[in-house]
Amino acid sequence: MTEISPLLILVAAIFTNNILLANFLGMCSFLAVSKQIDTALGLGAAVIFVMTATTAINYGVYHLVLVPLGMTILQYIVFIAVIAAFVQFVEMFVERFSLKLYHALGIFLPLITVNCAILGVSLFMIIRSYTFWQSVAFGFGGGVGWTLAIVLIAGLRQKMGYSNVPGPFRGVAIAMVITGVMAMAFMGFAGMVNIQ
Amino acid sequence: MTFLLPALVFGGILVGLAAALTIAERLLVNYGVCRIDINDGDRELEVDGGQSLLSALNESKVFIPSACGGRGSCGYCKATVLEGGGPLLPTEAPFLTRAEIRSGVRLACQVKVREDIRIKIPEDFLNVKQFAATVSSMKMLTHDMVEATFALDDPAEMEARAGQYIQITAPSPEGPVQRAYSISSPPSDSGHVQIVVRLVPEGIGSTYVHGLEKGEQVTFTGPYGEFRLNEDPEVEVICVGGGSGMAPIKNVVHTVLERWPERKCWLFFGCRGASDVFYLEEFEELARKHPNFRVVYALSAPEEGDDWAGETGFIHISLDKHLEGADPSRQAFLCGPPPMIEAVMGVLETKGLRDENIFYDKF
Fold this sequence. Notes:
The complex is a heterodimer. By secondary structure, chain A is mostly helical. Chain A has one domain (about 5-190). Chain A has nine helices and no strands. In chain A, helix 3 (about 35-70) packs across helix 7. In chain B, the strands form three sheets. Chain B has a six-stranded antiparallel β-sheet. Chain B has helices spanning about 5-30, 55-60, 100, 125, 205-210, 245-260, 280-290, 315-320, 340-350; strands at about 35-40, 45-50, 80-85, 105, 115-120, 130-140, 145-155, 165-170, 175-180, 190-200, 215-225, 235-240, 265-270, 295-300, 310, 330-335, 360. The longest helix of chain B has 25 residues, at about 5-30. By secondary structure, chain B is of the alpha/beta class. Chain B folds into three domains: about 35-125, Roll (Ubiquitin-like (UB roll)); about 125-225, Beta Barrel (Elongation Factor Tu (Ef-tu), domain 3); about 235-360, 3-Layer(aba) Sandwich (Rossmann fold). The termini of chain B are far apart. At the A-B interface, helix 3, helix 4 and helix 5 of A face helix 1 of B.
């Protein structure tokens, strides 16, 4: 575990262990926002930032506070608390420095808090006993992988606007089908690298 | 003990996070004191940054109209922001025309004051004051229409023009809200303000007004409104009201007849049934005293058993029937529901009236 280079973990987090297509985490905001490429990119950027930073902070909180006190059972709620606080901070920051982006993201900025991919990445880091730099790489790669998946689907859904989708499949149903097919495609990367 | 310690640790972590957030907020969301320059130096205000332009102005006793109280749903609080207002927000765009956007018009309730800001507002608004008054009479005109008269305490007099409106502060579960009502008493009665309000089910403002009792204190700001009566006694005045739109119309009619008893004046009033008719006797009396004043009431939905000998149908049809000629200098004052305003304006245009001589309130 400790031998794998952070760079390899980063690449793996994007392709072979894509947090959305391989682990199916972070599906809800993905389905809601993936209708247009620009919104998808904007949200993706915010998620990358939050994921990387919270992974780093959670690593610190886990190893410097919870482990010495023997309270590792608290990791679930503590991680969520840290993520929520950090997203609040990001909101304040974005509102202060880029009002346009703040209003473009709208409700989706605070919704990043409940994106399970973010909690998932922090928990995986603990389960797989990553070191600090491995964790940061994993967080960053996870974010990039999530953004990649959401932008790809957004592109497909934009094109689908012109296709003749059968009645029962329109909307979320066809999006799920496409996601499934994309997940199968990404399975082609499986086994290339083992970061478990 | 096994439960206490983890709870304390978690609590401690939460406190730590809250502290960090508070510090961040202090640093990031702190805008300090900002200066608002109104009308190129006419007035300069120093306000706490971080609040909306509307609340910053209200705090400094500069009142601009707002029917929704800052929620961004009425579009009344327009002000021209010359600099310091930040980018146009998507919540403002639906209320502004492209020309307005280009000249920097913004909604004051959506603009956040973060730095020194320069704005332009109509001169009139700088004269708007906050009034404390006592209810001097409450009279029911129909089953759902009340005429409320307020005696002004402080300031004791209001300088208004015919057809203007006030904004009453009414209590609501979410805190005080502002509701706009036209003044039905003429400006000559400067120590009183009278309004006519229809009870709207679940309506915060109308429920409040209908519940007022003689002697109660009320607070309102005013006067607001763009109605401008032409002072030339040769100019014919046409007033059209629908339902509770009677208030400013009554104001304009009384003002006209008080100052120019011979002036040509029309009053068209539309409502649904005979039970919604009010002030008819008073106006018919006025018409007997002033031969050049004509009154036409029309019922759009007369009920069975109504003793109504007058006209029926929508008011704009009556307008079409009675108004003649194509005199372009005539002025018209309209108040009522938006569809009525649209229909009446269509008819007025066929009668030759010019846009700048037509005044209306759509609330």
